[in-house]
Amino acid sequence: MSLIGYALILLSKLSFMSVFTSSIGRKVAMALSGLFLILFLTQHFTINITSVFSEDLFNELSHFMGNNPIVQFVFQPLLIFGVLFHFIMGFVLELQNRSARKNSYSQYKGSTNASWPSRNMIVSGLVVLSFLALHFYDFWIPEMNYKYIEVLPLNETRYFEELVHKFESPVRVGLYVLSFFFLALHLYHGFSSSFQSIGANNKYTQAIKPLTIAFSILIPLGFVFIAIYHHITAF
Amino acid sequence: MKLTLKVWRQANRTAKGKMETYQIQEVSPNMSFLEMMDMLNQQLMSQGIEPVAFDHDCREGICGMCSMFINGEAHGPDRLVTTCQLHMRKFNDGDTITIEPFRANAFPVIRDLVVDRSAFDRIQHAGGFISVNTSGNTQDANAIPINKTDADHAFDAATCIGCGACVATCKNASAMLFVSAKVSQYALLPQGKVEATERVLNMVKQMDEEGFGNCTNTGACEVECPKGISLENIARMNREYLSASTKG
Amino acid sequence: MATLDSKIPKGPLAEKWTQHKSNINLVSPANKRLIDVIVVGTGLAGASASATLAELGYNVKTFCFQDSPRRAHSIAAQGGINAAKNYQGDGDSTHRLFYDTIKGGDYRSREANVYRLAEVSTNIIDQCVAQGVPFARDYGGLLDNRSFGGVLVSRTFYAKGQTGQQLLLGAYSAMNRQIGRGKIKMYNRHEMMDLVVIDGKARGIIARNLVTGEIERHAAHAVVIASGGYGNVFFLSTNAMGSNVSAAWKIHKKGAYFANPCFTQIHPTCIPVSGEHQSKLTLMSESLRNDGRIWVPKNIEDAKAIREGKLKPTQIAEEDRDYYLERRYPAFGNLVPRDVASRAAKERCDAGFGVNATGEAVYLDFSAAIIRYGKEQAHVKGLDENDATLVKKLGQEVVRSKYGNLFQMYEKIVDQNPYETPMMIYPAVHYTMGGVWVDYNLMTSIPGCYAIGEANFSDHGANRLGASALMQGLADGYFVLPYTIGDYLANDIRTGKINTEHPEFEKAEAGVKAQLEGFINAKGKQPVDYYHRQLGKIMWNQCGMSRNENGLKQAIKDIRALREDFYKNVNVPGGTNEFNEELAKAGRVADFLELGELFAKDALERTESCGGHFREESQTAEGEALRDDKNFTYVAAWEYKGNPSKANLHKEELKYEEIEIKTRSYK
To answer: Domain range for residue C579?
Structure first.
């Protein structure tokens, strides 16, 4: 992950304006926010997977994440900003890119020279975004409600039950599986692409691509596994 | 071979264009695509129809003038060739072939299949050079040895013919492959390093002003590029740009 | 018009250029800002001249008919560029390059110009490297060289098979710098239609905007023609489709003499014609002859069987192959100069040994080179040198690294794999040594009008050596013209802006418009290409690789008839005020139809054989070209007198002070 560190240093040095005014600046911003979200995803997965083999550990970690002030008041807002930034920037770029060819081709064979995921990041991105809405509705809003609105008493063991409860509905599990499929597609292009955007593509970094592809398949598959596991074991 | 051709016709820059359908017969598989177009034009003229305007010059794949979007692909279905090197043996008797100009806002149509690619020239004016006077009083050519690998990579980048297939094929009409090829060529050579910072900033600025889209790393440009210019050049340009920005 | 004065400076050959540079007039930097120069054409010569003139401070207006200066046909030159650097330590020197060029040109070039060319050749390489031209390098990081036809040293610098491209892009980049600074105003998609001469001096041009059809007047204190050669008079040639003689021909009609039009280079290694539809021919770099061996079958029956498709070249045993160049010219073998190699191929094919369906092709075979390189590689890598499959594989890799792009190009066009089966090649028109007559300063016989690069005649005599065209284009543009033009312009510092309202501009513009209207109004039956193809056939058959009196006389008659028919029966659709490629072509073909006649007339006049000009009446018993030095050691400079047939011949005697004239022998 030293590359990400390097990228963060670069970002800190980039003049703020060039991020929004130059094509490459925007592209790099997109890549860095994506990498940040991938980092978050990895952390999220690490905690979730513990739910499969240790209810206690899962509860402990979840409690920590839910009540540590640094996580709550530094990382959480950062994450929300990251998601919003990635989404808004992606959407703006998509609009700009589409308008770079006002008269479109009557025949355009995109599939002969580029993969479906790479050409449809906006589609997979929007699916993931809708999933996030559902996810917020499922976990984050109840959580915020629990902690900050109703201010219910601390309960360090409630997380696992809440989790299992959510996966009882087969419809919800189905939606999760579908969303993670699109997340995989999004990552399949996005992860390796972000390295290209920050300029890491040469003979030394050839190994990155297979790793990113493995990641983009394994992590979403892992989430799917967790969902199905709890769905099955709930009964 | 008998073919049905659907060709974009547009009288001038401001006119509204449309696809027209023509039939053509007795096409030989040994013909180049442009020779087939010559044949079509002879036929149209004999029928009192104005010939289809298209750009072409060297007809050996190096000048970069020919620029047709054939059956949904820049320079047609073959790989590592320009339109002029595409041969009719790549098609079958009875095929319908769609022929359009390279399309992008930055490449306005001049007539039929002819587009204005002067945006590329303007990007080069912004920094596609090494500022050395042509007095001949430079140091000896062998004064600075250059690592063969770097020299070869610089050459590979420098083989770009500036045809615009990368822009035409990119779903975002991005010109990054073209610009990065020039940036890379100079970035790899000691002679070019001196003004690398200004070069990349100025060229990218001009590129953005011309109205090209952004790069989303689909890699389509690399596949359709008649000279096989590598995506590594875009990564290198991004690197150069980042490091130039941090210096700025 | 004054008689021919080539203005060769006095003094010893080796010091002429240096002394001349110190003695000619200069224009002060402040005054250069007041002077406008027009450059027509953006190939190596035009682009390098534009850049350098602008750098010196002149206001430059540059014109090209393509959509960008980078498209000029110099881009297609493959093999390399000569320079007397002697980096290989194989005995090269300025004098040897000079000598080789004169000898290669069959003693029909101007000694002083050629010496200067050899002298500045080394600057070109320094200059290009400084500009970032990525020449091939060896593992030590130093520049690599290869050898080329007609010489015994390795002095050719190259960038794979794309040297012309890299050099042109270098010159284009130098131009871009000046365009960015506003010192060059670039006119893309503009064609020069006529030269404007005021009080005997070139003062501007009439140009047509090829996008809008608008006719424009452009004034300047000097006009530089860098519009390349006229090989397309043959219709089929290795030139680009748009390459044309018009700019050169227009100045000829305004008073510039046209020199040695019949000196045309037919390049031996081109892809053979495949059918009637063919629009152009593709060259395969001469560098292929370094490793490829040229042959035809020894037995005429085998050749016949091959033509009928009953036999494959790989089935013909080694002893049944006739490596005719190695047989006839043991010293140079496959590396004889281009004219010699071309004629030898024609001789074999005419004798019935040609190999493709048309009978007009010979083989260029890499199997021996593949095995040789393969064994070398196997040895280096410590592998089994007797493993045929391995050796072939390793050898093919070496050949791929050297000529990969050429092999790929061949395969795309011919649909055969040249790694497995020999290539087929046949000579094709490639370069024209003849061109606008210029003096030592590169000025034509019109004061203030210059011609550089392939457009002029001076450096290659009757035959050009490989890798010398790039050298000449850049030498003229970077290092010669920018100095010599100052000598003329020094007298123009008080002239002020040239007025485009002058009656001469009006007259020239009216003439251009009338000609264009004439084409549109002819409303005949035949398209422009028909006439171009017909002209090409006449030229190829009567003025091609070998010429004779009867054929040339017939050609003159046929071209004249074709020209008359052209003006009456040509069909040019559309109008004058729009993008109209047929109209642009009509203007170019009209000029070719006149040049073609002068070409034949010049060939008829020169009854000797020399270089690319082979008169059947003048050959040795063995069929080698026979020069007539006593009667023809001159440059034939033709003055226009209203019609090509009335052209008036001026002779510039060629004097050789440093070189002893010898019979060229490559045996």
So the answer is: 502-633
Cut 0.90: pTM above it: yes
Subunits with 3+ C-beta pairs closer than 8 A to C: B
Closest CA to A72 of A147, A133, A8: A147
Most A-contacting residue of B209, B218, B247 (CB-CB within 10 A), to test interface: B218
Helical spans, DSSP H, in C490-547:
503-522, 528-543
Predicted pLDDT at A1: 44
C422 & C516 share domain: no
Chain segment C584-596, per-residue pLDDT in tens: 999 999 999 999 9
What confidence score (pLDDT) does residue C667 get? 80
Find the CB nearest B214 among A14, A96, A193: A96
- The reply to whether residue C126 touches residue B138, judged by beta carbons under 8 angstroms, is yes
Query: Any residues with CB less than 8 A from the CB of C495 and at least 6 apart, and which?
Result: C221
First and final C-alpha spacing in chain B: 60
C-alpha to C-alpha distance for A7 and C538, rounded to whole angstroms: 68
Q: What is the CATH number of the domain that holds C274?
A: 3.90.700.10
Q: How far is B213 from chain C (nearest CA, A)?
A: 22
Chain segment C393-439, per-residue pLDDT in tens: 999 999 998 888 889 889 999 999 999 999 999 999 999 999 999 99
Answer for the pair A184, A115: CB distance below 8 angstroms, yes or no: no
pLDDT (0 to 100) of residue C274: 86
Q: Would you kindly state where each structural domain of chain A is located, as residue ranges?
A: 2-96+116-233
In a domain, C402, yes or no: yes
| Residue B248 pLDDT > 70 | no
In a domain, C121, yes or no: no
Reported as a single tens digit per residue, the pLDDT across C29-41 is 999 999 999 999 9
Closest CA to C227 of C97, C16, C389, C65: C65
Which backbone phi and psi does C526 adopt, to 5 degrees?
-100, 135
CB contacts < 8 A (A, B) = 146
The yes-or-no answer on residue C343 being catalytic is no
* Protein fold of A2-96+116-233: 3 helical TM bundles of succinate and fumarate reductases (1.20.1300)
Q: What is the DSSP string of A204-231?
A: GGTTHHHHHHHHHHHHHHHHHHHHHHHH
| pLDDT above 80 (res C351) | yes
Q: Which one from C338, C563, C606, C615 is the annotated catalytic residue?
A: C338
**What interface predicted TM-score (ipTM) does this complex get?**
0.98
Is residue C191 a part of any domain in this protein?
A: no
- Does one domain contain both C420 and C524? no
Write out chain C residues lying below 8 Å of B178, CB-based.
Answer: none
Is the same domain home to C402 and C513? Answer: no
Examine the fold and report which residue of C427, C447, C482 is the final residue of a domain before the chain moves on: C427
Q: All domains of chain B, ordered by start, with CATH? A: 3-111 (3.10.20.30), 117-247 (1.10.1060.10)
C and A touch per CB criterion (3+ pairs under 8 A): no
| CATH code where residue C591 lies | 1.20.58.100
Given CB atoms, is A77 within the 8 Å cutoff of chain B? no
> Does C522 lie in the same domain as C610?
yes
Contacts 24+ apart (CB under 8 A), A51-54: A51/A160, A51/A163, A51/A226, A51/A230, A52/A225, A52/A226, A52/A229
B21 touches chain A (CB under 8 A): no
Whether residue C617 sits in one domain with residue C517: yes
* Cβ contact, residue pair A106, B173, below 8 Å: no
Tally the domains of chain C.
2
* Residue B202 contacts A, CB cutoff 8 Å: no
Which residues between 45 and 84 in chain B have a beta carbon less than 8 angstroms from any beta carbon of chain C?
45-46, 48, 50-51, 53, 55-65, 78, 80-81
| Contact yes or no for B214 and A201 at CB 8 A | no
Sheet holding C435-436, edge to edge: C435-436, C258-259, C634-639, C648-653
Q: Are C446 and C456 in contact (CB under 8 A)?
A: no
Which chain B residues are Cβ-neighbours of A96 within 8 angstroms? 213-214
pLDDT tens profile C150-189: 788 999 999 988 999 999 999 999 999 999 999 999 999 9
